[in-house]
Amino acid sequence: MGGITNIGHHLVALGGQGVRLGGLYDAAEERFVIKGLDRVGLRSFAATTSLTDLGFFRCDRDLEDELIRAIGIDGFLALIDAEGELRSFERLQGQPAQRERTTTQQLHRFIGSKGGRKERYGRRLAEVLPLDRVPAPLDAVLRWAT
After folding, report:
1. Cα 86 from chain centre
2. Half-sphere exposure of 5 (CA within 13 A, CB side)
3. First to last CA, the chain
4. What secondary structure does DSSP assign to the chain, as a single string?
5. Ordered per-residue pLDDT tens for the chain, 146 residues
6. Cβ distance 111 to 64 under 8 Å?
7. I need a surface site. Which of 12, 20, 72, 75 has the fewest CB within 10 A?
8. Biggest alpha carbon–alpha carbon distance for the chain
9. Which of 109, 72, 64 minimizes the C-alpha distance to 88?
């Protein structure tokens, strides 16, 4: 989509094509989802309809954070090691701005610190994630889509 602020454009483009609309969004970006749904008439501005009833599911922080919690710190570190980037992560941990942060915060920063890394690790995390640990918002959107 090129960012959440483009959701309205995509909802307009897909809305008239008989496509079942739905998706995941970050908690801090909920207002953009509401505005987009209002724009295409799927939810009026004053409506109290839950976004989940409309097929839109909120991640507590973002999907990456949901996946990090689901796989756990050790699982994520093993994945970084398997990808040959453990040394890069350790260098990030040694940066002054990162030293006081939790490992979870550092992992979150790591996957957002290099172009393409979010997509690559998001895909890899989804591949290794046990089915009984799928984060609730991801599970919900997958159920919505099927």
Report:
1. 22
2. 0
3. 21
4. --SGGGHHHHHHHHHTTT----EEEEGGGHHHHHHHHHHTTSS-TT----TGGGTEEEESS-HHHHHHHHH-HHHHHHHHHHTT-HHHHHHHHTSTTTTTS-HHHHHHHHHTSSTTHHHHHHHHHHHHS-GGG--HHHHHHHHHH-
5. 778 888 888 888 887 777 788 999 999 999 999 888 888 887 765 667 789 988 999 999 888 889 999 999 999 999 999 999 999 999 999 999 999 999 999 999 999 888 889 889 988 988 889 999 999 999 999 999 88
6. yes
7. 20
8. 51
9. 109
Q: How many residues does the chain have?
A: 146
Type of residue at 69: R
Give, to the nearest 10 degrees, the angle between helix 63-71 and helix 103-111.
130
